[in-house]
Amino acid sequence: MKKYWIIVFLVVLISGCKEISELEVSPEEAEVPTQEDLIKETTAEDISMSNQALEQADASICNSINSQNIKADCINNVQMKKAVLQLDTSMCNQLADESLKISCTDNVLLKQASQKKDESACNKISDEPLKNNCRDTIISSKAASGDSSSCSQIADVAQKDICTNNALITKAIEKKDKSLCEQLTNEFMKKDCINVLNQ
Q1: What is the per-residue pLDDT across 93-117, written as a single tens digit (0 to 9) for each?
Q2: pTM beyond cutoff 0.85
Q3: Secondary structure of 90-127 in the HEC alphabet?
Q4: Phi and psi for 73 in degrees, rounded to 5?
Q5: For 176, left (φ over 0), alpha (ψ -120 to 50), or beta?
Q6: Domain range summary for the chain, segments of one domain joined by +
Q7: How many H helices and E strands in the chain?
Q8: What Rg do the C-alpha atoms of the chain give, in angstroms?
Q9: 189, burial (CB in 10 Å: exposed 0-12, middle 13-18, buried 19+)
Q10: Distances from the Cα of 172 to the Cαs of 63, 176, 198, in angstroms?
Q11: Is residue 133 within 8 Å of 121, Cβ to Cβ?
């Protein structure tokens, strides 16, 4: 009987010993990522590829994106960037979505107007706030050269004040005239202007 238990013990002991390769986790036992984990991982990779495509203005990179929504956005964003870089509104017409076509065209027109410093070119922009911002920015840049006459055309009151103050500062420094500093509406700018002229 004692011999019988020793044999049973050895059989159990031997059968319990497995090769190391048998101890590895089987696919059934492995921790399977959840659908949410897979979506997060895919989305992060897709967004990264979309950003790379936009940086390089290369729509072919978008084709490797798994998410159809992110892929479509990527292609549209690259197309819009190319249109703005090339100042070509006809490239905007290749976009399927009408609101994207309009936004793209407006951004091309904004860049064209900014480069030419022509506020009348801003009038072609369909988005009113963007159109006003375009005009105000161009007018303000002209005023920075000392000409405040166009500042009165600016619709936004705060932007109009900035425009006028910038023109006055430029004139005051050019003419070394502290009385022009006194006309500034912003007290901080007034003090700075006087300090610059006192040096």
Answers
A1: 999 899 999 999 999 999 999 898 8
A2: no
A3: HHHHHCCCHHHHHHHHHHHHHHHHHHHCCHHHHHHCCC
A4: -60, -40
A5: left
A6: 45-116
A7: 9, 0
A8: 34
A9: middle
A10: 57, 5, 12
A11: no
